[in-house]
Amino acid sequence: MSWLARALRIGVPAAALAAGSPTPLAAQNPCPDVTAAASLQGAAAAPPFGADKRFGVVDNGGRWGVLDSVWNHRTALERGLLRPMAADDPDEAEAEDIGEIAVLRDEGDLVRAANIYDLRDVALRFSPNDDGGYDVTHLGTAAWRSPVGSQLTLGDDDSMALDLPFEFTYYTATHEGAFVNSDGNITFEEGDSASSARNVSRLLSGAPRIAPFLADLDPSSGGGVYARSGTDAVTVTWCAVPGYGSQSTTTVQATLLSTGVVEMTLDAGIGLGEAVVGLSPGRTTSFASVDLSDTAGATGGAAAVGERFGLRGELDTVAVAQKFLRSHPDSYDQILIWTDAPILFEAFAFEINIANDIQGIGLPIFEIPADFGSDELSSIVVMGWLGKYSDDTEMVVNDPDTTLSILGHEVGHRWLSFLDFSNHDHERSSELLGRDFAHWSFFFDSDASVMEGNDIEALGGGAFRTVAAVERYSPLDQYVMGVRDASEVPSFFYVEAPTNALPPARRTGSPQVGVTFNGTRRDVLIEDVIEVEGERVPSAADSPRVQRQAFVYVVRGGRDPNPDHVAKLDRIRQQWETFFHEATDQRMTAETRLRPPSPTAATDP
Question: The pTM is what?
Fold first, then answer.
């Protein structure tokens, strides 16, 4: 059973929701008179990036983050949201090196324009085609099925099983049940209660999915989700469900017809503008990005089909890499991107794995997509607006992190943290992992790793206390990074079934010093990790000890860079080299010069 399936609530049988044949379509929104705003009164203000969204989300499996970047890049070019870079345009500005900082000016070729949500008061029909996929028909103004049926008990990031009264053929498979997920979508085979990014890769990866409004919705804060089964149709309606930490809501309806047709109805009053709408056969890399507002309809072929909407312009990481490498050698492991204006609004920073050729670290093997124009890149880190960081190495910029520990965190995602292990019952376990199964658990003694977890002190009698956080890369981290042999990794532990945490804490929570709790100590050996993940290949003896990184500063609107800002970024760059070397116990070096001398330069005559 997958970790998604383990999170499911008890299913709702179709009989409990049955109400005969579907009623005729009507123009009136059938939702009960419940508003999210009323339910939100008196609620505590949400953290700026969500309770568990302090850092950038890393897609599970690694490869989905890079594919999302590629899909968004290609779609932006097709839809005219991004200006293509001419191959030989003498008037096009290239990167300008100011010291060891590469400055790129955005001329409409680095930041994608917003794709404003335009499906309000609209009905869509997705019909099976001869290719095994779906074509889209625009039905005009919204038409609703009423009544909405029984309310489902769904919380934030939640899922509930739902029996179907008929076999539903979807793409090339037939299903007798489905899962209603709080984040505006229906899946087959398994539910989805993850808190990772609601993006194109989320639509495509994992289970087959129907997404009338894939977004970070929170039914626990207002509105409701309803389901109604008839003899030839099952309808699910999200009624005035707010976005997480927002009073803006969405009302959408999805109907599964026994013929295999899917219909969606989207309300005129939708206040949220960040969403993905479409269908996916699941576990695919093929996506037909279409304009769902086009009254002529669209053909999806055999691929997933849909559209991604965004309220703001977004940095296009593929375009940044392409433009940077047009004037710099293809010799970097990572590109670290900073901007002169806010560009991230749902994360503080994030990392994308571009490729992975390392075995035994919990990531699949995959090659660099040709779109990036590189044969060497392993990942891209987007730090975002320089103004939110400090060149004071002691200043906390996002509790509990400093600028350098955030850099360490995001750079570390090139390798970390994705490890399962064989537990004391000789079963595969993910108890070391916390948020999004891509960070260390709060209750894992990670030796104050920058990848979260804490340094945990055992007080005796099953009592524990966190004493340090976000300081370094632990011996286990260093093993995964390829700079420490397995024989050099001491045993480590996590606390099983923690209770009585003061202040309150949870497995997916951010690190915090001074938290006490009780539980059962479970020691783990590196051999327990290797038993599940396999040995690291290449080993520490054959892994590079230098990580080649380029600091890139993107200036919006073609403006000239502020010299003081560039100087600040260069100070951070130099501080980072020292921090990284010390955080790895002097086992790895960050080479951040744009064009370092070759190793043989000193000996050349």
Answer: 0.83
